Structure formats: structure tokens, C-alpha cells
């Protein structure tokens, strides 16, 4: 059982970031539209199957991540703040009422013609953060997830260039 007196935020958080070679609007779109999310979300070797998706404040994304070893991970995200194309805040757990759910903030910062994305997760306790890091390799998984996003967005740009669409 988990208590909620978790200590300082710094002791309970994980921060992962990456610069992606695409405009902020496209990166935000890839992060907020289910047709894109299901193509890249998750660490290396994982796939995602969406059961329901409603991108709005108070809306949910109910999905299953399939691990490379066949393990299924029930996942639930509820969007708590949406400020396109700058920021998203959400609560992420195994289900709507998961007592171990953690808060996440994703910030999309312009970096010239690229986008710097910062994902910050704050867990209810330091122990839950440590479990996520040690048992589930959350830092590596977050980095792999952002790598997948960067690769996917690069493919989108390639497809756009091939079809002559500017995406503006």
C-alpha cells in the first residue's frame, strides 16, 4: 500500500527530454491525435492498442501496451490541462481510480525549426518513483518513447515531402 506523504517533488519526479526535428505544431499533433499516438507510443518493442480516446480536459485515453515478451499493461490517461501547442498535463495510471497514478506534464518548446519536448512525471511517493525507475525502467522507457516519437515525426515529414504537401 502506498501512502501520500511522498516528500519533495524532486524526490518523486522523473524528467525526460529530447529535441525533435519538426515544428512544434506537428509534434503536438503527433502527441494528441490517436491516429498518430498508436503508431509510436511506448518504449522500444512495445505496441499500443487503444480502447477509447477522447482528447479534451477531463477526457480519457484507455489503452493496452503490449510488451515484446507478450505482457499486456493496462493503461489509463486522463487529460487535466491542454494548452495547444505548448503544454499538456495528465494523470497516468492503470485505471481511472488507480491510487498509484502519477501526474505528468509535457511541454513543447520551439527550438529554432525544431521542438524541445520535456516530459515530467511526478509520482505520489518516492517509493513509487523508485519502483518505476528500477522495476519498469521508466527513464529508459521515456527516452525510447521520445525516440519513437522523433522517428515517427521524421517519417511524417518524409511522407509530406514525397506528396508535396507543406503541412502549413
From TrEMBL:
Residues 22-153 form the Activator of Hsp90 ATPase homologue 1/2-like C-terminal domain. Coiled coil: none annotated. Pfam families: AHSA1. Belongs to the AHA1 family. This is Uncharacterized protein YndB with AHSA1/START domain. It comes from Kribbella aluminosa. The lineage of its organism: Bacteria, Bacillati, Actinomycetota, Actinomycetes, Propionibacteriales.
